[in-house]
Amino acid sequence: SSRNCAGIGLSHSSPLAEENGPTGSPAIGAAGSVPAAPGAGGTEGSGAAGGSARIAVKKAQLRSAPRPKKLEKLGVYSSCKAEGACKCNGWKSQNPPPTPPRTDQQSNAVNLQEPCRSCSHTLGDHVTHLENVSEEEINRLLGIVLDVEYLYTCVHKEEDADTKQVYFSLFKLLRKSILQMGKPMLEAQESPPFEKPSIEQGVNNFVQYKFSHLPSKERQTIMELAKMFLNQINYWQLETPSQRRQRVPTDDAAGYKANYTRWLCYCNVPQFCDSLPRYETTQIFGRTLLRSVFTVMRKQLLEQARQEKDKLPPEKRTLILTHFPKFLSMLEEEVYSHSSPIWSQDFLAGTCYDDEYLPLCSFTVLVGEKRKPSEPLPHEENKRPRVVGDIPLDLINEVMATITDPAAVPETSLLSAHSARDEAARLEERRGVIEFHVIGNSLNQKPNKRILMWLVGLQNVFSHQLPRMPKEYITRLVFDPKHKTLSLIKDGRVIGGICFRMFPSQGFTEIVFCAVTSNEQVKGYGTHLMNHLKEYHIKHEILNFLTYADEYAIGYFKKQGFSKDIKVPKSKYVGYIKDYEGATLMGCELNPSIPYTEFSVIIKKQKEIIKKLIERKQAQIRKVYPGLSCFKEGVRQIPIESIPGIRETGWKPVGKGKELKDPDQLYSTLKTILQHVKVRDSCTHMNMQASHQNAWPFMEPVKKTEAPGYYQVIRFPMDLKTMSERLKSRYYTTRKLFMADMQRIFTNCREYNPPESEYYKCANLLEKFFYTKIKEAGLIEK
After folding, report:
1. Which of 45, 228, 391, 629 stands 20 to 30 A from 768 (CA)?
2. Chain centroid to CA 548: how far?
């Protein structure tokens, strides 16, 4: 039985679960479901609502009671303060109320002189410390008391050992808080958040990463789906570690148990024990927890949606039954992919990294193995960090809003000279006019009539467009189970395709045939076909294409990024690919960070951004200066900075210097300069390890504890340790990159610190010293 899917059943229960029915997730599409107590939920949160509401009602009743009644309640949890070092840790009535309490029983007046059944001291002796405590503090302590009593019930009714242990620990924590009149503080090695970026940030990055190009109405739909998904996670009931061990015995049991314990302490229990600090699951957990629940959660959510489709309101039906499954499928790929950029802390909104999602496209894999979670790509570890510009993010967002507004930027005509080759094909795909499918013949599966018809259509297209290729040879390869074909379908018939064979062990794919039927050419289909093929291979982690192109095809392949410079070692492909006489071997290396099917859209968007930024800058400095008359007087040249208005444009004089072409020479020079900046001059001090007198504030990254709010002010931090690591990884391929990072250290310091501070002065002095060393090295003119 499942602990999550509404109405399926319970494997174990806690008090609220027993009182309120089966566990479950909030109703799909619910805008805001009521929190659930441990192990409880209900299809629409009704059970949890009842349990949480009852606790809230009890607290309200107790807080409205007379003060003596409140003291009596607190006395039960207060140690005796009588003289003689009494060890009694809570007052016990001589006449305890019946269990369960009778509704018709009259409430007796509280007598502070009533002796304790355990130590014989009076109730007043147990609450003397509360005499001068404010009513607000008394009410806070009473809230903790009721939470303690509820957790006590949970401990005794819970059957799962791991969950029971957490309940008991929280019970003791709250009990101690009452005795010490303190605030409950969870003692843990780590405090929230436990992973960055959080699930919420990752999903928001996913929306930006995949759907930023969509019109505002469609993008709003995607945002609604994302909000719905995050809401489901926040009220999702995790399976216990023991249940997970039975279902996934090979999983990281210790890691899951740690996250389960954190989830109970910080997210689940505080939903009904409000004296504990509460966090949203999606804000303090990251991809690790999401991976552990996503598969089961997706399956149960979709099953629940199918079962309840008749109950869904009409306006939600299409959203949940059509778009939500697609949304989850796409998100699943990013959740389990090691190379997905949405989980990078450097992810920036407005930056495109990979393929964009088009809601109406039908790019599906009909034959072929299911995609497995990807392993890290070989080049991932050596990937250079991105250099981020100095343009304020607010300005970028403002410009983005302008260029995505249809009223502000008219659509480029498809007949325009500036439209991309594949723009018409991309728009047709979005409207559903064309579809892309990766298909192939199979000896293991039952023949699919539609796929077989498409394969026959592909054989005809290749035969007509490649007349010099034997028809039998084309037929054999198209129907060979080891080959696949990316087919282009229009009006239900094949109009083009690319036949290929993948060699995963060798790290490349051979493209065998590529053709589009003659009456459908010059529409951008060929370019869009190849772009889809590139993205398909990136998802399957094959980043090299090889093909033999005849004299008619060389031009097409060059436009698609192929060249005669083969990156794949010869030993990898000799004996694997088919050799053709009179053809030229060409190769293409794929970049997994490029969204090929949307690449032209991104370039267009970037051009618009630059154009708008230039227009804004021009508007700010729009001032006409008189022409230069000095040249009429015989002056041959003048300094650039003397031209009126030149500095207002943002121009800054940059010292010219030699750019070292030899990478090893550049590395050696920059290393020497960085060493001088970090340590004292060896001529004056023998100890080279001593820190430069002005470099000490910049040796390490700024710690949040030492500079609160630093990372809210400084968006792009830099320090000498990071520069050393970048230098070691050969990141600095030019002197300008090195100088830009060093300059950022000084700029950041002056932006965050006041001019009179010691840090500000250190930045100025070290900057002067740095440029002295740069000039001595000949990297800029003296």
Report:
1. 391
2. 40
Name the pTM for this structure.
Answer: 0.45
The structure tokens listed for 32 are 């805001």
Catalytic residue among 334, 510, 535, 767: 510
- pLDDT tens digits for 304-343? 888 888 888 877 877 888 888 888 888 988 898 877 888 8
Instruction: Encode pLDDT of 526-572 as tens digits.
Output: 999 999 999 999 999 999 999 999 888 898 999 999 998 888 998 99
**How far is it, in rounded angstroms, from Cα 436 to Cα 536?**
11
The residue whose two tokens read 């101690």 is 176
Give ∠ CA 571-572-574 in degrees, rounded to 5.
65
**Other C-beta atoms lying within 10 Å of the C-beta of residue 590:** 19
State the DSSP H helix or E strand holding residue 766, giving kind and residue range, or none if neither: helix 758-776
Q: Does 100 sit behind a cis peptide bond, omega within 30 degrees of 0 on the bond before it? A: yes
Burial 483-493 (b: 16+ CB within 10 A, else e): bbbbbbbbeee
Annotated binding-site ranges for acetyl-CoA = 514-516, 521-527, 552-555
- What residues contact 636, with CB distance under 8 A and at least 6 apart? none
Bin 778: left if φ > 0, else alpha if -120 < ψ < 50, else beta. Answer: left
What sign does the CA torsion over 114, 120, 122, 123 have?
negative
753 close to 734: Cβ distance less than 8 angstroms = no
Bridge partners (DSSP) of residue 502 are 509
Nearest to 291 by CA among 246, 345, 233, 235: 233
HEC secondary structure over 158-182: CCCHHHHHHHHHHHHHHHHHHHHCC
Q: Which stretches does DSSP call E strand in 266-333?
A: none
How many residues are given for the chain?
Answer: 782
pLDDT of residue 351: 47
Tokens found for residue 666 = 């550049």
Cα gap 489→483, rounded to integer Å: 19
Annotation marks residue 781 as catalytic: no
Cβ distance 140 to 38 under 8 Å?
A: no
Among candidate residues 339, 344, 203, the one with its CA nearest the CA of residue 283: 203
The tokens describing 567, both together, are 């990156």
Task: Tell me the C-alpha distance between 114 and 71, whole Å.
Answer: 13
**Closest CA relative to residue 587, chosen from 549, 540, 551, 555:** 549
Residue ranges at the known binding site: 514-516, 521-527, 552-555
Mean pLDDT of 497-503: 95
> What is the pLDDT confidence band of residue 463, given thresholds at 50, 70 and 90?
very high
Half-sphere CA count of 83, side-chain side, radius 13 A: 0
**Is the pLDDT reported for residue 137 higher than 60?**
yes
7 or 685: which leads in pLDDT? 685
Q: What share of the chain is helix, strand, coil (3-state, %, to 5)?
A: 50, 5, 45
pLDDT in tens, 44-91: 344 444 566 777 888 888 888 888 888 888 888 888 888 777 888 888
* Cα 132 versus chain centre, distance: 51
Share of the chain above pLDDT 70, in %: 79
Chain-centroid distance, C-alpha 95: 59
Using CA atoms, how far apart are residues 177 and 183, in angstroms rounded to an integer? 6
- Residue 390: how many other CB atoms lie within 10 Å: 9
